[in-house]
């Protein structure tokens, strides 16, 4: 058997608390069919707690010292948070394929410029992407004239895209935005990968999952997954549930993940008389994350505003056959009708959300049908083997030019 070519993937790995770390482990294992996969992590990262069979890892400094690694293809898995900051200089100086898990890198680049007192670099980034308007907005921000919504409305990614040989995204919305702004750049939408055979992640049934997690068998279970921040619109979901609780079966709403300090959940639950209905887990393991999905009847996966991210939690929920409620907005609009419930985007009026909740809460057959349709779609169109093949094709076509 011929020796496989090496492929370097720059990414955080578990135990880093980012879904991209889990994503890359799943993808990395599938890529070993085509490549010798080498992960490159930050110098200060902890040793990986999950390293797929057939893969190896180096810290950045160690990797950079190895002359034989200098010419191998590189994939930079970029997310909009500080876990990925160590890649920024590498992307600029040693171009490769850039994967934008979030279309905008505004939040990350603020942390790497303004948060460190470098106002000129922030101004340069905005000038690069938006010209005089961007420069003026940066200057206004220095004088505390700024709305944080602009970090969502004005993506910053131009210097990263310009430095890259090609760009991968997972949603059609991001692909259209890329092709419009960077018509000469090689771009590709690759289906978000889903794996349904990870050790320890899948229990025998919903009943077993509920028994293991201590969730009542007889109640209707809603859930929302991942770190709880204002864009997850948990307050909106809670207000909708409070308005319909007399019209749906007895329920619990499980918030699975850590909570941002920006949300005063205790006061809100008191105000809405939902204290007995809402459970907060705190951070859970990757395996437990899947178990909570298996235990759920309805997963509420709202997001507004969006930085162009693709929700890994939503793909996992759909792949497990959950019935999902989403806003018909951004990457969430990509999914075919019948695979989930799309609620018109309106974060001020809960009426449409209330109707959607009552519709799925009061009809088990509807929930099961939507969940089954979602599962079939994910397994047929988003299996990790499809993503691994498309990554391989794009790497070869880009680096062989």
UniProtKB/TrEMBL annotation:
GO terms for biological process: carbohydrate derivative metabolic process. Residues 207-376 form the Glycosyl transferase family domain. InterPro entries: Glyco_trans_1 (IPR001296). GO terms for molecular function: glycosyltransferase activity. It comes from the Bacteria. Pfam families: Glycos_transf_1. Keywords: Glycosyltransferase, Transferase. The keyword Calcium does not apply. PANTHER family: D-INOSITOL 3-PHOSPHATE GLYCOSYLTRANSFERASE (PTHR12526:SF510), GLYCOSYLTRANSFERASE (PTHR12526). This is Glycosyltransferase involved in cell wall biosynthesis. It comes from Thalassotalea piscium. The lineage of its organism: Bacteria, Pseudomonadati, Pseudomonadota, Gammaproteobacteria, Alteromonadales.
